[in-house]
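Notes from hallway chat w/ T.B., transcribed later so I don't forget. T.B. wanted the structure written out for a chain they're using in a teaching module, and asked if we could keep both sequence and structure tokens in one place. Agreed to drop them here.
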Amino acid sequence: MKLPIVAYGDPVLKKVCEDIDENYPDLQQLIKNMFETMYNANGVGLAAPQIGLPIRLFIVDTKGDEDEEAYVKVFINAQILEETGEPWAFNEGCLSIPDVREDVMRKPNILIRYYDENWQLHKEEVTGFPARVIQHEYDHIEGKLFTDKLGLLRKQMLKSRLDNISKGKVSTDYKMRFPKQNKKR
């Protein structure tokens, strides 16, 4: 089932998420729905806060190209243990912030510990584009957005676009859920 993606401005996107355990209700169906939602929106990653759930769960599918294999994983209760290497810029976007793309600096190598969908514990070194996607999704479960990594001037330049997204003044090819606006009485 395709789920609506939470838009910029919703408080769930700013929450540090909670760990879950193997008894989390309907976890396998949730993961399946998240993949269907991500693929429908042409994303390469999706975190639970982006569908309104403040839990430490995200998925990644880098869809590989001719030079690289696809990197497809489920991350539950992930912890990035280390980030190393010389930071590099890459133009990032986010399904919760449609039509906004900005260069973000990230380190190219990570060491991450996580559970997969079968509750197997992994400790893995990841590099390059998959590491970047993981860092982006990991930020979501830490209550951070890629726009938080931008300089003050760039954030000010994007303010009206971000405000429009939070007000639902954006067009996408996928379902979105917009924050409830405070109505004056």
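Follow-up for T.B.: The radius of gyration is 16 Å. Might be a good example for the class.
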